[in-house]
Design goal:
single chain, about 425 residues, FAD/NAD(P)-binding domain, 2 domains, four-stranded antiparallel β-sheet, 18 strands, about 20% strand, globular
């Protein structure tokens, strides 16, 4: 008996193999989008499987519609590649806003205040203008679809990874559940971009877990902007890309009674219900106390909780806070820190690789870093960068018939650079 309810025994069943992929990317957030597009552009037959009905993850469903940040806090861009390509696509639609290049790194107080009111400057000062961006999440969804399909990726929604089949040190199949039943996909290399390291756990890899206080971002409309802009509470909400609406990054430890395990469905149930209740109470408070919000209405909750940490892979190398600003010969992605100026992490290829599964890479917020580094690497631009590296490396491993750890990193760095990713000048001669 376990939990007082015993067990049932399911009958043995045959699971149909519905497809084969060279590179199978599981999870369609920023990291999964980048991994799938990068692998497909390298010529790999690529499939992207996502549990919801749209791409973007927290970047869309979570309403975390701020790219924090693409720079190092000193006016130098350190995330480019597919993240920059998405910025360009959104900008062409009038659906993205970022400070112009000539203002990056400026300490001008008026500029800093302007961008802080748009949600593009965070942390403690002294502040400068960051290269961060705000965007429309609905436009992001459509552009993400286009980016993936134009690359030739086989996109499959509404499937949840529930098992793997291994042969030795390799995953040969990932098993998914959906309303169509249980199905398997044969694969050459797997990129786990689930955010929660789901595939890594199914493969038996070691992970670290964190309890978190959930967030639930929401949007309001019908706000009298002049009054709202003049309020001393102005920095608790931010203008959206389009006039007439505000974004509310609601949450934090003092908002909800306890931290949760974001991989426990009962904890998630509690948090979903409690966060909606409390966030609506925040709207009532704004209506009663903050000028401009008297007739505001709730334009929408995020479709998913703002969970930014749950499980992280313990990979070949765990990047630590002590390694901030240190160079790595096998660097494949770089990120600044959205609340700290001048803090840069070079992310090594080894931090994307599983220890016991030679054809499993991770990308996004479940890469192998410690809790402090995670605060930088969990952000959407960094997830784009690690996803692009994972997808490119996965395609190269198959192309050359080697395990992921056997990929020639200098060749991987060269391909990333040729595709527009930013890497340190000592690697690419720039």
């Amino acid at each position: 008996m376990e939990g007082g309810r015993g067990f049932i025994v399911e009958p043995e069943r045959r699971v149909p193999v519905i497809a084969e992929a060279d590179v199978l990317v599981v999870g369609g957030g920023a990291a999964g989008i980048a991994a799938a597009v990068a692998a497909a552009r390298q010529g790999a037959r690529t499939m992207l499987v996502e549990r919801y009905g749209s791409l973007g993850g927290l970047a869309t469903n979570g309403l975390i519609v701020l790219l924090l940040t693409l720079d190092d806090g000193r006016g130098r861009q350190v995330v480019a590649g597919l993240c920059q390509e998405m910025v360009d696509r959104l900008s062409a639609r009038g659906a993205c806003f970022a400070p112009p290049r000539e203002e990056w790194g400026s300490p001008d107080p008026a500029l800093v205040e302007r961008y802080r009111r748009l949600g593009l400057v965070w942390g403690s000062g002294p502040h400068v203008v960051r290269y961060s961006a705000a965007y429309d999440p609905e436009e992001f969804r459509v552009e993400a679809d286009g980016l993936v399909l134009e690359a030739g990726v086989d996109l499959r929604f509404h499937r949840w990874a529930v098992g793997v089949r291994r042969e030795g040190q390799r995953i040969t199949h990932v098993v998914f559940e959906s309303k169509a039943g249980r199905e398997a996909v044969a694969c050459g290399v797997v990129v786990d971009a689930t955010g929660d390291a789901d595939v890594a756990v199914l493969a038996g890899e070691q992970v670290e877990r964190e309890l978190v206080h959930p967030w639930l971002w929401f949007r309001t409309a019908n706000v009298v902007e002049d009054a709202a802009e003049a309020s001393p509470q102005r920095l608790s909400y931010y203008r959206t890309v389009h006039p007439g609406g505000y974004l509310h990054p609601w949450g934090a430890a003092e908002r909800i009674g306890r931290a949760i395990d974001a991989t426990n469905p009962d904890d998630l149930t509690y948090a979903e219900v409690e966060c909606r209740r409390l966030a609506r109470a925040e709207l009532d408070r704004l209506r009663a106390k903050v000028p401009g919000f008297e007739r505001a209405w709730l334009a929408g909750f995020a479709a998913t909780l703002g969970i930014t940490e749950s499980r992280r892979l313990v990979g070949i190398h765990q990047l630590s806070r002590e390694e901030m600003d240190l160079p790595f010969d096998d660097v494949v992605a770089v990120t600044g820190h959205w609340t700290k100026y001048g803090a840069v992490y070079e992310i090594p290829w080894r931090s994307l690789l599983a220890r016991e599964t030679e054809n499993l890479a991770v990308a996004g917020r479940c890469i192998s870093v410690d809790h402090r580094v995670h605060h930088a690497t969990k952000e959407i631009p960094a997830c784009f960068a690690t996803g692009e590296a994972a997808g490119t490396g996965a395609a190269m491993a198959l192309e050359r018939g080697v395990p992921l750890a056997g990929v020639a990193v200098s060749a991987l760095q060269a391909r990333l650079g040729a595709a527009g990713a930013w890497l340190p000048g000592r690697v690419l001669g720039r």
